[in-house]
Design goal:
The complex is a heterotrimer. By secondary structure, chain A is of the alpha/beta class. Chain A has helices spanning 21-26, 31-37, 41-51, 63-68, 92-99, 101-115, 129-144, 175-182, 211-230, 262-269, 294-299, 304-309, 328-342, 348-365, 371-384, 392-406, 408-417, 431-436; strands at residues 78-83, 119-124, 160-165, 206-210, 239-246, 252-257, 260-261, 279-283, 292-293, 301-302, 318-323. In chain A, α5 packs across α6 (101-115) and α15 runs antiparallel to α16. Chain B has 3 domains: 2-91, Ubiquitin-like (UB roll); 118-270 and 519-529, Alpha-Beta Plaits (2-Layer Sandwich); 271-494, Rossmann fold (3-Layer(aba) Sandwich), CATH 3.40.50.740. The chains are: A alpha/beta, B alpha+beta, C alpha+beta.
Amino acid sequence: MAIQETKYLTEFYHLPEFKGIDGYKKNGGYVELEKALKMQPQAIIDEVKASGLRGRGGAGFSTGMKWGFLPKNNEPRYLLCNADEGEPGTFKDRMMMEKAPHQLIEGMIISGFAIGSKKSYIYVRGEYDQSINTLETAIQEAYKAGYLGKNILGSGFDHDMDVYRGAGAYICGEETGMISSLEGLKGQPKLKPPFPAVQGYLKKPTIVNNVETLAVVKYVIRDGAAHYKKIGTEKSTGTKLFSLSGNVMKPGNFEVPLGFPLKDMVFGLGGGMKPGRQLKAVIPGGSSAPVLNAEESNRALLDYENLAQMGTMLGSGAIIVIDDSNCMVQCLSNLMHFYHHESCGQCTPCREGTGWLDKITRSILSGKGRLQDIELLLKVADNMKGKTICALSDAAALPVLSFVPKFRDEFEYFVREGKSKVKGTAYKGHSYAEMHH
Amino acid sequence: MLKCTINGVALEVKPGTTIIEAMNNNAQRIAHYCWHPGLSVAGVCRLCMVEIQGNPRVQIACNTMVTEGMVINNTSDKVKDAVKWGLDFHLINHPLDCPVCDQAGECGLQDQYMEYGQYDSEMAEKKQKKHKVVDLGPTVVLDSERCILCSRCVRFTDEVSKTNELGIFNRGDHAEIGTHAGKPLDNKYSLNTVDICPVGALTSKDFRFKQRVWYLKDSETVCNGCSTGCNVKVYFNKEGLFRVKPIYNAEVNGHWMCDEGRDTYKFVNLGARLTKAYQFVSGTWIENYAGAAAKVAGANLKSAKAEEIGLVLTGQHTVEEYESIVSTFVNTFKTKNIFHWVNNKESFESFDGILLRGDKNPNTKGLLQVLEKHGINASWSQLEEGLKSKKIKHLVVAGPENTFVYPDLEQKMQLFLTAENLVVLTAAKTPALEAYKGSNKITAIPLKTYIEKDGTFINFQGRAQKFKKATTVVSEALTLSDAATLMAGQDLQLHVASPREVLVAEHIRADQVHLESRTKNEFVFNRGRL
Amino acid sequence: MSVVKQKDESKEWYLIGITTGLIITMKHLLVNLFNKKKMITLNYPEEKYEYSPRFKGNHVLTVKKDGSIRCTACMLCATNCPAECITIKASEHPDAQVEKYPISYEIDMLRCVFCGFCEEACPVDAVRLGPEWQTPGLNGSNFTYDINHLAYRPALKGGVASIVDDQDRHKAGI
C-alpha cells in the first residue's frame, strides 16, 4: 500500500471555501466552540492534559501542563498565538493560517475560554502578508457571527482577538522575545523565572502556544482525549504537520501521525531523491536541530522520544533533506550566518559566539582555515550551549556539534585542500549576506 | 532565614535573596558585569556562573534565589571553565588598547581577566568595528568598541534617573549603546552611568584623560554639595583633586550621587582658593600669615564693645567648628549677634525626588543645632539694621567654600563691607573683596575646605556623618576652630588624632582598605563592589 | 679600609719599575708616530667615536608615516620611570581612531638615568633611546626636552618613523 498522509487537521484543506466562515461552518466549524462553552474551563484543561497534546512550536512541552501553571486568581491573563514562523525550513503555520484561519480562531477561543483569557493576540511574522490579510478577514467574520466580542453565543464569556504583525526578527519567535516585542520593546527574550505563565505580557499571566497546537484543541474537544490519544505513539500523541523541503522530488507540508518513519516521509511522501543522487543528511526539526546522517535517518521515527534518543529533536517539524551534491561546510556556514544575523545581542556568549562561529566557518570556506579551527568550532559551540537566557545560542551550537563530528572528513578536507570535497560547489559567498550587508 | 552553603561556608540569608547577593554580602568573590546591587537583574553577561548541588548545569547567580539547604560553589573547575569562556566571549571583540583607554587600572575586564582568565585568545578573525568617541551628551563620551553591552547604563536611565535616554540599538554583535536623535544623555545623574560602566566605554568628559587612575589616591568623605550629604570618595594626588564618586550608604544616597556633587572638588583645588591672609589697612592689602592675621583680628575684636561685634555663619562648615566659634563669640566676646546666612531662600526646601535638595549647604541642620544650644535667635534683619545704624561695627564672616551656590555672594559682601571692621574667613577667592578699595579695615583669612579637615556634617535627616581629612591643598589655611582659638587669643594645640578617632561615614566593611594602611602610590579599588 | 704595608726589600729598588714604565710609554709613542691607524685615542671633538646602534642615549619620540607622533599618552613610561623624569599631559585627539595624544611630553634629561625602562614599557613603540649621547649645554640651558625636540630635532632629519605602522598593527589585529 502506498504511503499516505493521515488527514486529521488538514481534512478540508483542499476546499477553497474552507477559508471563509460559511464554508468552514458547513464542514463542522464552530460546533466545538458551542460545545466547549457549555463545559467547565477546568474540564477543558483536563481534557487537553489527558490528550497528551504537546506544543507543536519546537520544545514539545505538554500543553495541558503549561495551562495548569497559570496562577489561580482573577488577574487578567492573555493568550498569545505564536505565528512568527521563523525557523528556517518551517512553513506549516502559514498553510494553516491561509487555508483554515477559522480553525485557528476557533481553537483560540476555546483555549481562551479554558484559561479564562479575555484577550488574545496572534503574533504573525511580518513577511506573511497573505496570512495576515486572511486572518484579519476571518476575525471580522467571526466578530460578525458573534463568535468573538461580548457574551459569545450567550455564554457570558467575552473574548477579543487581534493580529499583531512582527517585524521579521527570528528571536521574536521565542515566547518571551515575542512578549517583549508585543509590549513595544526591543524583541529580546526575558529572564526566566518568572515564566510567562506567571508574569508575561504586561506582567500578567500569559500563555503562548503555536498555531498548530491551538488549532488541535478544537479536535481534542471534538473527539475527546481518549480518541486523540489513540493517534500517534504513547507519549507523542496525535498527528503533526511536517514541512518537507530540500533535495526531494516533492517538497511540501504533510500531516502524519507522530511516530511515522522518517524514511517513509522522505522516500514515500517526499518522492525520494532526484535521479542519481544519494541521501547524505537530514535535519529533522528545523535548522536548529542536530543533523542526522543517511544511516541514522533510515531508522529514525518522527516522534519526540525517538528523535531525542538519537540526539536530535522534532522541533517545529521542518525536515530539511540534504543530498550528496551539497557541501556540509557550506551548509553549516550558511546556518551560522543566519544565527549570527539573528542573535539579539543580549547575552554575551550568543552575541559574540554566533559571530565567532560565522567568522570561523567563513574563513574555512575562503580557504584560510586552520586545522585547529575545527576543534575551535566545537569548543566555542560547546561553551555557548545552555549558557544564555533563551535557546538561540543552543540553536546555533547544536548544528555545529552535529555537523562537525558527523562530517568531519569534509571539514578536514576543506581545511587541507582549501576547497570542498563535493565537486561543483565552489564558494560564491553568501547570497544571504549580500542581501543584508 | 534560609540556610545555605556557599563555597563550604554555611550562611543564613533572608528569603528572596539571590545567590549573588548572598555571596556579595558575605565577602565571597564572584565574577560579574551586568549585575549591580542598585539595578534590576539583566542576566546578560553570563559570568556569575555557580554550580548548585544536584543541578548538572551551571546557573547564573544573579537570577537564582537561594533555597533552603542549597549547596553552592563557584570554585569548581566547571565554573572556572565557564567563566573563562564567558570572559573569552567578552574579549574577542574588545579592543586591546588598554594604554589608551581611560578605564585601565580600574577596569572590570582587566580585573576579571587577571583573576579568572589569563589565557591566550584563540580568536584569529578580525574584530568587529564600531563607533568610537560618540558624544552622548554634555557630560559623557561613549566608545562602542569597548562596550560589553552589560546594559547597566541603560537600566540606570530607565530605573533610577527615569529619563530613558539610553538604549541598545541594532542586534547581535553590531549592537551599540546610543541615544535617540535630539535626546542627548542630559540629566542631573548622568555621570553615574560612567561609574557603573565596568569597562572604559562610558567616560566622563570632565575626568577623561586628565589623570591615569593609578596616580590617584582616594579617600572617603561626605559630599558638601547639598543637605543630602551623599557619601563620596574623592580622588586626588599632589596636583589636587580630580574627581568625586559615590560610595554606598543605604540610608543616605544608596549607590548614586548627582552631577552637581561631582563638581564640588573644583573649589577645593588651588586655583579657586585664597592662599594667603590679607589685611586691608588704610586702602592697601598687606599680606600676612593666616595665624598672625587671626590673632591681630582677635585683638581688635577684644578691644571692641560686645554689642558692636557680629558673626555671620554659613551652613558650609562642620559642627565642631560651629561649636568652637560660637562658644568663642558667646564666652570670650560676650556677644549673641550671630547670624545665619541663607543663600537661596526660595528654593531652600525643594527636592527633586532622587537626591538633589535645594539647600545647597551640607550642614544647615548642624548650624541650627549649635545656635539653638547657645540660645541664639538673632534674625538677618537685625544684622541689616545693625549695619545700617552702625550698631554693629565689627563683623566676622565665615564665608562659603562653595561660592558657586551662593548667587547672592556679591550683594551680601557689599552689605558686609558697610561694617567698619570686617573679618572674612573664607576658603574661596572673593573678587568682591579684592575689588573693594574703601576705608574699611578688612581682614581676609584663608580657611580649609571640607577635604582638608576632620569633622561632622548633619544632613537634612538629622543624621550626623563624620568624615576625616583627605589631603591638604593650602597648608597655611586655618579651620574655623583654629581661627576661633587664635582670635580668642589662645595658641593652637597640636593634636595628633589617631586614625580610629575619626570615622569616615557609618559604613566600614571588613574588606575595606583604609588610607592609613596603604603604601605609596598604591591604587586601591574594591573589586567586590565593581 | 686601610692597608698596612709590609716592608719589602724588593720594593725599595723602584728604578726598575720606572724604567719599565718609560719603555712602555716610549713604545706607544713610537708606534703612534709611525702608525697612526693603530692609535687608540681620538681628537675629540673633531673626531667622534661611533657607538653601536643599540646604544641607549638621548630619547627619541617616534612618528607615524604621516609624521604625527606615535605616542598615545598612556603614561606607562612615566609610571615605569624610576627617576620620575617624564611628564606627560594627555589630550583628546580630533581623530576618533587615535583618540588620545600628548600635548606635552617632557623628559628631564638631568634626572634621567638612561635605564631604558620607558622604551620597554611603551606599548606602541613611541619612545626609544637613540644613539645620540652628547648633550652639552651652557650654564642655565634647558635640559628638560619638550615634545618638539624629542620628536623633530634637526639631528633626527625629520623624525624617526617607527618600523611598525598603525595600519600594519590594525591588520595584525592589535
